[in-house]
Amino acid sequence: MDILDRVSKLAVELDWYVAFGGKSAGNHHLERVAKIAGHLYELLGDKEADRLVVMAGAWLHDVGLIVGNLGHAATGRKISSALLRCMDVVEVIRERIEHCVEAHDRGVEGGGVEAASVEAKIVHDADTLDKIGPLGVLRHSWKISLGMAPERLLKHLPAHLDQRRQNLYLEESRELALPYDGTLRDFFGDRKRALRVLGIIGKCAQDGIPSEEVVSHLEGTAASDFMETLRGQLALDVLRI
Q1: Where are the domains of the chain?
Q2: Is 241 a residue whose pLDDT tops 60?
Q3: 146 neighbors 205 (Cβ within 8 angstroms)
Q4: Dihedrals φ, ψ of 16, to 5°?
Q5: Which residues contact 141 (CB under 8 A, 6 or more apart)?
Q6: Which of 36, 146, 160, 219 would give a disulfide with 126, using CB separation of 3.0 to 4.6 Å?
Q7: Which residues are CB-neighbours of 172 under 8 A, at least 6 positions away?
Q8: What pTM was estimated for this model as a whole?
Q9: Which candidate, 203, 158, 201, 166, places its Cα nearest to that of 183?
């Protein structure tokens, strides 16, 4: 088994069965981020980035969640360093992967570590692209709904998702994000329906239903264009891969 196989397998196990008390089992966020990162890597070409660094960083970016969401990027760097040492990854490559992990969450209020390498910018943008548009509504609401009522969530989400989009580093990433703007305007414009959707997401999070499975619970509640775009994001149709 090569390094990436070992890294991806371990990252998914930790994400599914340790982070969020095992409630995220079945969530394919890491898989999507890895695919988006691979797509961005192909667009930029191997002269600008190292594929092993990009892909390992994509799989490990959320490893810090096993000890909680607060400061998980910084914690993730320490955890990923220990894991990569156990896999005998050479220091120069290990440090570049670790930087991808610590810089993946630029933050929406100026916090976080700025990406200082092309690989870190790719990982950051891949993670962010899985957090905008309808999927951003679903994932972010699922993640924080246990401590935030639908009314407060609805007030918080528009600015949060817009800031996520603005934080993208790469022009290629910004182009991928463009199709979601109209769908979100329509979603937030219908306050009554949006509150129903957020309420369903929150209940599913409480019941330990992973975000991908929440989609079926939204049928008949969310607008058809919202649902169509959401399914497209989950299937990575936007990448045409």
Answers
A1: 3-126, 133-239
A2: no
A3: yes
A4: -75, -45
A5: 153, 157, 198, 201, 202, 205
A6: 36
A7: 40, 43, 44
A8: 0.88
A9: 158
For residue 108, the 8-state DSSP code is S
User: Could you count the other beta carbons within 10 Å of the beta carbon of residue 193?
Assistant: 16
Is residue 72 a contact partner of residue 105, using CB atoms and an 8 Å limit?
Answer: yes
Amino acid at 70: L
Angle of CA points 214, 39, 158, to nearest 5°: 45
Residue 193's closest CA among 167, 212, 220? Answer: 220
Structure tokens at 27: 């969530």
139 neighbors 160 (Cβ within 8 angstroms): no
Nearest by Cα to 183 from 239, 139, 230: 230
Q: What is the pLDDT of residue 24?
A: 80
φ, ψ of residue 108 to 5 degrees: the values are -105, 5
At 202, the amino acid letter reads: G
Scored b (16 or more CB within 10 A) or e, 150-177 reads beebbeebeebbeebbebbbbeebeebb
Report, as an integer, the average pLDDT of 179-194: 92
Residue 173: in which H helix or E strand, if any?
Answer: helix 171-177
C-alpha span between 68 and 66 (Å, rounded): 6
Tell me which CATH code domain 3-126 carries.
Answer: 1.10.3210.10
**Is 213 within 8 Å of 234 (Cβ atoms)?**
no
- How far is Cα 120 from Cα 99, in angstroms, rounded to an integer? 7
The string of pLDDT tens digits covering residues 203-226 is: 998 888 888 889 999 998 998 999
